[in-house]
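**Archive record**
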Amino acid sequence: MKVYFNNSCKICKAEIDLYKREKIEKIDWVDITDNELAEQETSKDSKQLLRRLHVKDGEEVVGGAKAFLLLWKKMPKYKFLYEFFKLPIIFSIFSVVYEIVAFFLYLKNKKQLKKTNL
């Protein structure tokens, strides 16, 4: 599994650093900042990658709240988050809240985008 995240966003980096401490060998952490290979691997442009967390598991690439579920499911210490947030009503709320927070983080960090993608 590959996790595509924005390492230059302080909030994103802090959360991913927390997950990295678990040293899960089956997870590759990929910084999306100016990373054309990440764009190719996910078939997403830099704007799409900057907008949400993405996970590639096999050939499937998912973003947003669903990406967090896939990540937490693979991490024993955080599996309880997967179990809780996968509940239908909770997932619906989580998805909306995630999109709101992700939008404001995107606005804060969008200066990272290449000029051609604006």
In short: The chain has a mean pLDDT of 93. Strands lie at 2-5, 28-31, 54-57, 60-63. Residues 19 and 35 are 21 Å apart (CA to CA).
